[in-house]
Design goal:
Length: 139
Amino acid sequence: MTVTNTAAFAQGMALDACVCTAAKTTYNDGTNAVLLSSAGSNGSEYTHIAAIPRATVTATQAQLYAHDGANYFLIATTLMPAYTMAQTTLAAATAFTHIDGTAITEFNPLRLQSGWKLYAAIGVALAGGVVVSAQRKDY
């Protein structure tokens, strides 16, 4: 992006999603991580990232990685509680937070520069899968 004095406004928005099924037990590589999102050509802001199970799940760690093309950086985890899937109950989503524990929001977005990607993973395998979704603004 060319440096200017003009304000940068979002050029587009998207909802990205992926399904994680395999257990990821290593934290420094891409094994069993699933591509969630690619930053836009001038970078992106993520205003909400959450995970929701598609089947009965035991308590499991959900993981978020930033990938620069060569390295995977663990940037967030969240604990998804155990839940028994039923049509008469709410399958609650579990939101990711920044590495310091603050909420990822419209006013405190996760920023990702051009060329980087976000990957998601879960710590316990689930055949039915866990959906991870991200709301993104591209610049």
